[in-house]
Amino acid sequence: GEPLRQIIKERRIKVLFQPIYDFKTNTIIGHEGLIRGLDNAGKMINPQTMFEDAKRLDLLFNLDKLAREEVIKAYAERLKKGLLFVNFIPTSIYDPNKCLRSTNAVIEKYGIESSSIIFEVVETEKIYDFDHLNYILEFYRDKGYNTALDDIGSGYANGETLMKLRPNIIKIDASIIRNIHQSESQQKELKHYLSLANKYQIKVLAEGVETQEEVTYLKTQPIDYIQGYYYAKPS
């Protein structure tokens, strides 16, 4: 547990950005901030390993908070334009008023417009406590921030329930996008989420796009934004 404690204490975090494109105009409209931990030798640590360790060691809140703050700081120093997608893990936040105070303070410190920030729910497990998540999203909305739900279609709860959380954007999981041109069941699933998004006036982002064939198929659908290695890797 000591290496992770040290990483958090010394803020040894590297921030990468992956561009997000407007699918119709093919222009960059924003970036998702992604973090990598750095070991003593400065080598990057897989974030999944880091977050699994954090959960085991009861450091999830500390790591998630550090990640949010470092991503916002890097955006202010390096990008300064376009939308910023900031990931957060809802189970690490027990009370938004207390837990999100420092994140809010960093945004204010750098004078970033609240409308530029999209807080993105990432959760490896299924969401069970919708009331708690809604409470967090309500906090963000009250501050003028936008919200997004990540990994839609990867074993989350019922789609209709998710839409009632009123996110501004839903991100369709790579498991639906991968080789979608060859899979009728994936196409059907995508269309289900597109119709729900249309009903609730939510924008749709397809993530994990890797091939021209996937792009060609997605062009036939009302997708708003797109992200993936086909366009650009995190850098």
What this model shows, in words?
- This protein is an alpha/beta fold and 235 residues long.
- 41% of the residues lie in helices and 22% in strands.
- It is built from 10 helices and 9 strands.
- The protein has an 8-stranded mixed beta barrel.
- Helix 2 runs antiparallel to helix 3.
- It is globular, with a radius of gyration of 17 Å.
- The mean pLDDT is 93.
Rounded to an integer, what's the Rg over CA atoms? 17 Å
* Low-confidence runs of at least 5 consecutive residues: none
The amount of helix comes to 40-55%
The major β-sheet equals:
8 strands, mixed, barrel
Distance between the termini: 28 Å
Mass-distribution shape = globular
State the strand order across the main sheet: 1-2-4-5-6-7-8-9
Strand percentage lies at: 15-25%
Oligomer: single chain
Order of helices and strands: HEEEHHEHHEHEHEHHEHE
Describe the structure using short key phrases.
globular; 9 strands; 41% helix; 8-stranded mixed barrel; alpha/beta; 235 residues; single chain
Summarize this, please?
By secondary structure, the protein is of the alpha/beta class. The protein has helices at residues 2-10, 47-56, 60-79, 96-99, 101-109, 130-142, 159-163, 174-177, 184-199, 212-218, and strands at 13-22, 27-38, 44-45, 83-88, 117-121, 146-152, 169-172, 203-206, 225-226.
